[in-house]
# Entry
Amino acid sequence: EHVGALYAWRDCEGFREPLEVALDFVLPRPASHWTKSGALRSKIDCLPIGAKTGDLDNLEKSTLDGLQTAGVLGNDSHVVALASRKSYTPDRDGPTGCLIEVRLYTEGPA
# Structure
């Protein structure tokens, strides 16, 4: 279902209205988070704040640029509201990546 939606964008010029975007980055856990038996260690950082996890602002920028290049956004300057977070996957082999939601901005002028 979602893959079909992605292919529908190929011939589209992208959204050209004010948009709000939500980005949920899910990162793989480092090997040090797991015991030899595969259990999650206690007393570990539960949020990805280390130098190797990427700065959230850089993750946002590269993702918005990619959405523009893919034709989903006419221009990433149309994004007027942005919510994002990064977290670790809860499972050793859990899915990683970014869940992206793009909506028309619906709030009125301030």
